[in-house]
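Technical note accompanying the year-one report. For the benefit of new consortium partners, we illustrate the data format agreed upon in the data management plan: each record pairs a sequence with a structure-token string. No post-processing was applied to the example shown here.
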Amino acid sequence: MPSGSPAPRRNSKRVQSSPDAVLPGVDDAASIVAKLQRLGTQKTRDGMSRYAIPSDKAFGVPVGTLKTLAKKIGQHHNLALELWETGWYEARMLASFVDDPAAVTSAQMDRWCREFDNWAICDTVCFALFDRTPHAWTKVELWSTRRAEFSRRGAFALLWGLTVHDKSADDGPFLRGLDLIESAAEDERHFVQKGINMALRAVGKRNPTLHAAAVETATRLSDSPHDGARLIGTDALRELNSSAVRKRLAGRG
């Protein structure tokens, strides 16, 4: 990213547990996976399939239940690594909720990103964990050129999350993000398109200056000869030009 990228931010406030803390029934990855298996239901698994979330490696535990369990566990980096390695959907979701952003390495982010296999894991890891790490902006740039569908989506899920959670960033990194959006917008894959669309809209809703820049980007995309880019631009303009968005931004001018 260009000079002017924001300095690392303070971690979000979470309950801190020592690496050696033992909680009844959730003291290690194996016992947590066993607990998740007991909490799962076929009804939830069926619902996952309807939302294009693979359920062959899932127990069917609601996200709300996972967040409650994460609060009981507290922040625990080593446990998060172990949970991720199990490969279970809910264990990986839980890993993103309990990991320590300050302890997450660049290599860990790349490794997990390569293993994203659905939009829900991709978005949750990026929104709940990766966008709070000191490496986030570097990965937006790097992953935007990846060929794997969910790795590339990860770049724009990160950008989307940073528009909300990086309160200290100036406009520079987000303007660069708009360049990356425009460069990737011809990717016709559905989940990449959705990630780009949401990132474009989120950047445009951050402040009036970025709104104007995002509208310009969306307008160019809406005139593109490529179907995917044109759809992204047209859809983003619909929200960015809405009275609700303009009214909210007017109060920030």
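Partners are asked to follow this layout when depositing records. The first helix runs from residue 29 to 39.
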